[in-house]
TrEMBL record:
Cofactor binding remark: Binds 2 magnesium ions per tetramer.
Lineage of producing organism: Bacteria, Pseudomonadati, Bacteroidota, Chitinophagia, Chitinophagales
Protein name: Phenylalanine--tRNA ligase alpha subunit
Catalytic activity: tRNA(Phe) + L-phenylalanine + ATP = L-phenylalanyl-tRNA(Phe) + AMP + diphosphate + H(+)
Chain positions covered by the region annotation Disordered: 80-103
Compartments where found: Cytoplasm
CDD domains documented for this protein: PheRS_alpha_core
Quaternary context: Tetramer of two alpha and two beta subunits.
Encoding gene (name): pheS
Endpoints of the signal sequence: none
Domain of life: Bacteria
Species of the source: Compostibacter hankyongensis
EC number(s) from the headed UniProt entry: 6.1.1.20
InterPro entries attached to this UniProt entry: aa-tRNA-synth_II, aa-tRNA-synth_II/BPL/LPL, Phe-tRNA-synth_IIc_asu, Phe-tRNA_ligase_II_N, Phe_tRNA_ligase_alpha1_bac, Phenylalanyl-tRNA_Synthase, tRNA-bd_arm
GO terms assigned for molecular function: ligase activity
Length: 348
């Protein structure tokens, strides 16, 4: 070993001893330690610069020694920093003041869609409805054909569909009626279910429409089920959701999977039925569609339509939420604006 290497090895050993014995007395001493060993003009910087004077066959061993020294210095510096932070009265540390108020623990809030969804489920659970769920990607049979909408049926044009694949067709479901079909195919009667979930339609996004939204559809199938049962069920829902003073009316309509079919309106909650821009000066707001299950749909699912009858209904959760909380823009539900969501903290 050369004379230079002997000298530098002894010097490094001395540096190791100095570093291992270092205990900071304060911030100034710790900073002086950092500058001395780890600074841009410090000892380690000079030692690494001297690598070029070391014989090539010794550079690998010498580099390992220097890296070990550097790690020791960095570790000692970080230990010193932690000691000062934990030491009362030192800069960077502080004594615990138990008289100070606790740090506020901010709680989130449930989304308004989730609030209304849970409320709808709770209302129908009280009268014996259970929850059924299904896939958001559906085949043509469950989304269209089984619901009395065969290929080229004009009712398909009422729903602008996102197709995932063609021939055979797979789509993002346009309604949760597909869940009703899957339950009916199981053949376990009677059936009394609600089907909440997200659905998708290729629509232009605006204050009143979006490419995805949430639905709750209901289905009741048993012997001797009538339209009167449907009306009383929905009367009960409206009074529980919007209050006993809410008025209800039914208007004849058309759906391929129900016959007869109807749209159900409630008196406008914003103007009290007097007429405003929300209800288009009519005093009424549509909230859902409904009707008696079409006999062909029952037969498609293997249910004897001469013995069993049933009713179905479907509503958009966003529509119910907008009415309940008097929200005028559908896009607010999916923009994740904290200022909007904070308004529902008290509703948790």
């Amino acid at each position: 070993m050369s004379s230079y290497m002997e000298d530098i090895t002894q010097q490094i050993a001395a540096y190791k001893t100095e570093i291992a014995a270092f205990r900071p007395s304060g911030e100034a001493a710790l900073e002086a330690f950092r500058v001395r060993f780890l600074g841009s003009k410090g000892i380690l910087k000079e030692l690494f610069a001297g690598m070029k004077t070391v014989a090539p066959e010794q550079r690998k061993d010498f580099g390992l020694v220097l890296n070990e020294l550097k790690q020791l210095a960095e570790e000692q510096y970080h230990n010193g920093r932690e000691q000062l932070q934990d030491r009362p009265g030192e800069s960077g540390g502080r004594e615990a003041d138990h008289t100070l108020p606790a740090e506020p623990q901010r709680l989130g809030a449930r989304h308004p869609i989730s609030l209304v969804r849970s409320r709808i489920i709770s209302i129908f659970e009280k009268i014996g409805f259970s929850i059924a769920e299904g896939p958001e990607i559906e085949d043509d049979w469950h989304n269209f054909s089984a619901l009395n909408m065969p290929e080229n049926h004009p009712a398909r044009d009422m729903q602008d569909t996102f197709y995932v694949a063609k021939a055979p067709d797979w789509v993002l479901r346009t309604h949760t009626s597909s869940v009703q079909v899957r339950v009916m195919e199981q053949g376990k009667l009677p059936i009394r279910i609600i089907c909440p979930g997200r659905v998708f339609r290729n629509e232009t996004i605006s204050a009143r429409a979006h490419c995805f939204f949430h639905q709750v559809e209901g289905l009741y199938i048993d012997e001797n089920v009538s339209f009167a049962d449907l009306k009383q069920t929905l009367y009960y829902f409206v009074q529980e959701m919007f209050g006993e003073e809410s008025r209800v009316r039914f208007r004849p309509s058309y759906f391929p999977f129900t016959e007869p079919s109807a749209e159900m309106d409630i008196s406008c909650l914003i103007c009290g039925g007097k007429g405003c821009s929300v209800c288009k000066q009519t005093g009424w707001v549509e909230i859902l569609g409904c009707g008696m299950v079409h006999p062909r749909l029952l037969e498609n699912c293997g249910i004897d339509s001469r013995r069993y009858t049933g009713f179905a209904f479907g509503m958009g959760i966003e529509r119910i939420t907008m009415l309940k909380y008097q929200i005028r823009d559908l896009r607010l539900f999916s923009e994740n604006d904290v200022r909007f969501l904070k308004q529902f903290e008290g509703a948790v």
